[in-house]
Amino acid sequence: MRGMDGEPQRPSSRGDRFLAHRGLIALCCGTAMAEAFLLIVLAPGARALAPQVSALPPLAIFHDLRWLYSTQRSWLAFGLLLAALLVARAALNTALVRLAWPAHLPPPPLAALRGAIVVTALACLLISPLVSLTFGPCC
Amino acid sequence: MLLIALPLSHAGLAGTWWRTLPPLSAAWWLLAEFCVLTVAAAVSTALPPPDAVAVAGLAGLVNARAWYGLTAALARAAVPAPAARAPAGAAEAVAVPLGGHRIPAGPMALAAVIAEVIALTRLVFVFSGPAATGHPQAAVAWAAGTGGAVPARDAVADAGRDPVLEVAGFGSWCCGQDHALAQALPGTVVQQFSYRGTDHRGQPLPYGSKASNLPLPQLGDRIAAQVWRLHEETGKPVDIVAESEGTLGLDAMLALHPDAPVGSVVLLSPIVAPGQFGYHSTGSSLVTRDELHALIWFVGGLSPFGTSGAQTLINSVNSVGARFAAVAAHHAPVRLLEVIPLADAVTLPACPLPPSVVVIPAFHGELLGDPAALHTVRRFLTHQPVTGAPNLRATAEIVAAAAAAWRMPESATPSPPCGARSGVPGSGHGKS
Predict the structure, then answer these.
(1) Best CA proximity match to B168, nearest among B236, B246, B91
(2) Domain range for residue B82?
(3) What is the pLDDT of residue B422?
(4) Of A30, A31, A77, B325, which sees the most CB atoms within 10 A?
(5) B164 and B34, same structural domain?
(6) More confident of the two residues A18 and A14
């Protein structure tokens, strides 16, 4: 018997259904809906971006960087916002990994947060040129 | 973006990600999420703003499913079988790679992707880009039906319609265009605009592909000078067919020379809402500006135009492009047609297209070489009805709404080009 991901399902994993991960569902839906609500109030033209806040890491970081690049006005503000972004995104991703982790397997250690920050920083570095390219149409 | 994201799709979800390539399921979930988020953007843009909360909730559910599927696949791969049956306290087990090798497969895949992107960019310029230096021929005005170049004054005698000034886009050269417009308009004087200006007889000076790197005010001035010269020679208003960068120059001309004797205007592959997105609309974002300059420098180095090949133009667009476009939009009545290739729909703002827009199935640039576009332009300039394909308009609007997911956040839809619309294609007055 195989699961949706093409992996053989072990007997212990049969009880690990997606809908049982209520915390994961609540966090993903809640953050997306919260951002959508804020954008409707503050920037309705940007409401299409809201669901990306809880997307998989590369897409979510692309979302974060576009907001960072469109709001910062100085190197100091950029540095502070980037640091906050790194910590917040790494923390959210770590929480989502733990909530998505199969119930029958040992969860990842909290020390994974440190690695998540490094990974987030690396992803920011690699994706930031793409963010710059999304600025204004020119010729 | 997806090429860069793919090697990172499993990053951070497992401690040993850098030693492994992402599993197939990671690529699948990333692509599935990209599609779902794109559709969600289109739907939330089409619905009233309050409905965006519900759309975000549904997309969030898909996000949760993607996290669950990806994490489960990585957990199974990272945790040895015995650990799967171990008590929950044995958390360290997840950090042990199955393979045990220390080859940085993840970073190597990233490096390969980046190298591939750079190589593809270079290849695109090599195989489809314009010549680095043209071999300008003599300046000409083309009178349709003569079969060759003739001096403008001689051509005027045979001209039955308003003269037409053709303003080619970035990287063009004079006079290397294929005269397609002149051949499509019998009895009409068609003159090419020169980015270098005109000689003492009012003839466009030959120029190479690098001459189009001009600040917008200077570009607007030169277009106006050539328009006035054609007007003086013919006594008629001058129709303008502008493409890509030429549409920016036209905006500059209409903003700086509102009295220029302009008749009908055709915009091909127009640059929509220039300078309205990005840092100049939100403040002086130094980081973005510096990074964008570095990027332009790098990509320019891969192109035939060199590291500073478009810098002057881009800086000018960022500083005055939005203002010129706004002023031009309120210009005194101009009969207008905008021909937008479907591929450019990803750059359009998410709002209903104005009636002056016709969408054709094509890529950006050199639309006069496209028979459908040339036919549309000819009908418009000869005052015949222009009807675009309604299906393509709807498709372009859907693509524009979906692409909003991956553009810079906009606090509001840009105006122009979004705004009140009425009329039928090609009959609109005033630049919308």
Answers:
(1) B246
(2) 2-128
(3) 41
(4) B325
(5) no
(6) A18
Question: Alpha-carbon dihedral of residues B414, B416, B418, B420, nearest 10 degrees?
Answer: 140
Question: In a mutagenesis test of the B interface, which of A18, A40, A49, A128 is the best target, namely the one with the most B β-carbons within 10 Å?
Answer: A49
A108 touches chain B (CB under 8 A): yes
Q: Is residue B428 part of a domain?
A: no
Tokens in use for A132?
A: 């710059």
**DSSP per position, B339-352:** EEEGGGGGGS-SSP
Q: Does B290 touch chain A (CB under 8 A)?
A: no
Q: Does B82 touch chain A (CB under 8 A)?
A: no
Q: C-alpha B405: how far from its chain's center?
A: 16
SS (H, E, C) B136-189: CCCCCEEECCCCCEECHHHHHCCCCCCCEEEECCCCCCECCCCCHHHHHCCCCE
Are residues B117 and B157 part of one domain?
no
Residue B307 maps to a domain: yes
Which residues 2-41 of chain A have a CB within 8 Å of chain B?
3-7, 10, 12-13, 16, 18, 21, 24-25, 27-33, 35-37, 39-40
Cβ separation A137–B30 shorter than 8 A: no
Does residue A116 belong to the interface with chain B, where contact is any CB pair within 8 Å?
A: yes
Nearest Cα to B158, choosing from B170, B167, B145?
B145
CA distances from B215 to B218, B313, B349 (A): 6, 5, 25
The total number of structural domains that make up chain B: 2
- Buried (b) or exposed (e) across B140-156, using 16+ Cβ within 10 A? bbbbbeeeebbebeebb
Low-confidence ranges of chain B (pLDDT < 50): 83-100, 131-141, 143-151, 153-159, 278-284, 420-432
* Residues in CB range of B421: below 8 A, 6 or more apart: B352, B353, B354, B355, B432
| Structure token digits, residue A55 | 């997307």
Whether B217 and B281 share a structural domain: yes
CA B405-B409-B412 angle, to 5 degrees, is: 110
Whether residue A100 lies within 8 A of chain B, CB to CB, comes out as yes
* One domain for residues B120 and B148: no
Per the rule left: phi > 0, alpha: psi between -120 and 50, beta: everything else, B275 is left
Under 8 Å between Cβ of A8 and A2:
yes
What ipTM was reported for this prediction? 0.88
Chain A closest CA to B83's CA: distance in Å? 7
Looking at residue B187, what is its pLDDT? Answer: 83
Q: Where do we find the tokens 């982790």?
A: A101
